[in-house]
Amino acid sequence: MAIPHKLNVIWCRTFQGVLKVGNYFMGYRMPDYMEGNGRIKELGAFLKDKGINDVLVVTGAGMVKRGQVQPMLDGFDANGIRYTLQTYTTTDPTSDDVEAGYRAYKENGCKAIVALGGGSRIDCAKGIAAKAVHPKKTVAQLQGLLKVHWKIPPFVAIPTTAGAGSETTVAAVITDSKTHRKAAINDPFLIPKYAVLDPELTTGLSPYTTATTGMDALAHAVEAYTNKTYNTKLEDRLAREAVKLIHDNILIAFEDGGNLEARQNMQRGAFYAGRAFTRGCVGYVHAIGHTLGGLYGVAHGLAMAVLLPHVMEAYGAAAQKRLAELADICGIKGSTDAEKAKGFIDWIKETNAKMGLPDKFDVIKDEDIDQMISWADKEANPLYPVPVIWSREDFRTLIETIRS
Ligand SMILES: [Fe+2]
Fold first, then answer.
1. Model confidence pLDDT, tens digit, residues 69-127
2. Which pLDDT value is given to residue 399?
């Protein structure tokens, strides 16, 4: 028998109240980071200084081929850092990818991991790091909450997109090679120790990828900021700064991919947003977005771009004060919170339109809607402290608004 909605709301809010206290013991932290053009060349000297001299480099085969990894490797050679290259061609990391990477790590006597790539490569490398401290466990056994609970080897994350924020988060999303189930290893021990934000690595991103990954980062910041409960002042501040950075730079980076200042700001925005949602959580934008990815292969960033304004609108008055604060930071005018919130949501819609992104999806099938609702509800409730806890009917209404 389904639980009455009011009881479910009480259960969710009680769970979130308990977790809020638990969060103070979680050990959330921010990676030490260096930023600037060409900073990957200096990583060798940095590692040498830290006494790290045997590393596994996890990256994409295409990046190696295009010569994007070479400046970092030259820096390793110059500083006597031994490295093993572990390259991948797959889009999403699988448990087999993680096992292969762990074998390379072990057989070559590596003592640290450097991940250079998008969120997928960094997630794969996090999986290898989790295996390094739990060699006898399978990836499936490590998936879930707080299963790593041990210090991983020194880990450097170098993102080549400005979106996922994996360089600062607790999560590694990995697909089981046998069951094809996609699930996350979630543990604060997976937060990278160091991050390098080198904007030159993102100048080759297409305008489309710049748009969708940038909107993913925006969704992280906006969902974390409009959520209740878990944030401290730090997450609130980082979310606000991330929104401002993305607001001021996303169209510049989209229109002029070589603009290093805009690229740097987008990277920093994604980094801050990643740290904000690490504690503050995401919300229904992500929960519903993941169902579109699972059922129809909709790219994560695209799902975020389309869903973000619709979900914020659907939260109504419960999110208006926080959205109005974000509007203020971005210089969006209005005489009431409701007007400012609308102005902020309209800005997201207009930005999507300017970048050629759609407002709705034409892939959602009638027969899948119940499944989407169940998956989204299960992912979000009770964990995500969303502004309004939705009933199944609320999810249904939202899904109908994003169908064309
Ligand atoms: Fe995301």
1. 999 999 999 999 999 999 999 888 999 999 999 999 999 999 999 999 999 999 999 99
2. 97
CA of 79 to the centre of ligand 1 (A): 36
Backbone angles phi, psi at 285, to 5 degrees: -60, -50
CA of 274 to the centre of ligand 1 (A): 9
| Overall CATH class of domain 32-202 | alpha beta
Domain ranges of the chain: 5-25+205-401, 32-202
How many Cβ atoms from other residues are within 10 Å of residue 82's Cβ?
13
CA of 106 to the centre of ligand 1 (A): 31
pLDDT tens per residue, range 354-376: 999 999 999 999 999 999 999 89
Classified as helix, coil or strand, 360 is coil
- C-alpha 220 to ligand 1 mean position (Å): 6
pLDDT tens sequence across 48-75: 999 999 999 999 999 999 999 999 999 9
> How far, in Å, from the CA of 279 to the mean position of ligand 1?
14
Architecture of domain 5-25+205-401: Up-down Bundle (1.20)
**221 Cα: distance to centroid of ligand 1 (angstroms):** 10
Distance of CA 76 from the midpoint of ligand 1 (Å): 32
Contact 287, 228 (CB under 8 A): no
Tell how far CA 147 is from the center of its chain: 20
243 CA to centre of ligand 1 in angstroms: 14
Give distance in angstroms: CA of 165 to centre of ligand 1: 8
278-307 per-position pLDDT tens digit: 988 899 999 999 899 888 989 999 999 999
Distance 45 CA to ligand 1 centre (A): 33
Sequence-ordered list of residues with C-beta below 8 angstroms from that of 214, at least 6 positions apart, any chain: 162, 163, 246, 250, 253, 254, 266, 269, 270, 301
* Distance from Cα 99 to the centre of ligand 1, integer Å: 25
Q: How far is the CA of 262 from the centre of ligand 1 (A)?
A: 20
What is the three-class DSSP state of 174? strand
